[in-house]
Amino acid sequence: LGSRLFHPEDTIIKLPHSEIGGNTFTMMAGPCSVESEEHIKRMAMVAREGGATLLRGGAFKPRTTPYSFQGLGEEGLRFMREAADELGMDVITEIMDETHVPMAAKYTDVIQIGARNMQNFSLLKAVGKTQIPVALKRGLAGTIDDLLNAAEYIASGGNHNIMLIERGIRTFDNKYTRNTFDLAAVPVLQKLTHYPIIVDPSHAVGAWDLVAPMAYAGTASGASGMIVEIHDDPAHAFSDGAQSLKPDTYLTMTKHVFALKQLM
Ligand code: PEP
Ligand code: MN
């Protein structure tokens, strides 16, 4: 169902305040985790100022260890929804379990399926039964075909509002970067599928000073949008501080990204 052969035209996903796909370029930004009501409101203002039409933030966090911050849960979703509504933004947030689907329906515009859950087939089937747009992240060791097949689990349930996110893949050299950003995957996926392809330079590199260069490269790759992590006090971020852009760096980065997109 995701194949270009079956459906040659680009899928365009329409949200209340954004359009994703084709030649548009959609910016999504926010902290890795929703940390407090006040913090997400402040970060939403920064995100918006940089041209983001979607606010990101995790309320259910897939942490590597169970002893790390796990997210604020439903309260976090409520804080993020309010912050986005005040600024006329859409919300993208991760759910980790099929039991979260009703909550997602209540609070979010886009359901993010994290890299670690790319092949959580019961979760994919559950979101496939809704009409809520889904952003499916490429798994840590997921091939392009694995990603496309995971998307089929959603589409075959009847939900065709799917976008795919390249967020870097597990690599043999993770001393300087967290993952290897597979930018060739963007044009490859665009050849194979009609779904919007989004890049996530933050999780791909894991280090804030590498995010802007890879954001430019991601834009040049032809992606339909970008998702990026921001924080005003990265040293004290609840998660992923090392890769979070401070507001001034983010604002400069997005200015260049939109200028670059204009040239394409
Ligand atoms: C995130 O977006 O914060 C996240 C956990 O991403 P990924 O699933 O790509 O690791
Ligand atoms: Mn993160």
Automatic annotation (TrEMBL):
GO terms for molecular function: aldehyde-lyase activity; transferase activity. It comes from the Bacteria. One of its GO terms (biological process) is aromatic amino acid family biosynthetic process. Keywords: Transferase. Residues 20-260 form the DAHP synthetase I/KDSA domain. The keyword Ribonucleoprotein does not apply. This is 3-deoxy-7-phosphoheptulonate synthase. The chain holds residues 65 to 328 of 333 of the full protein.
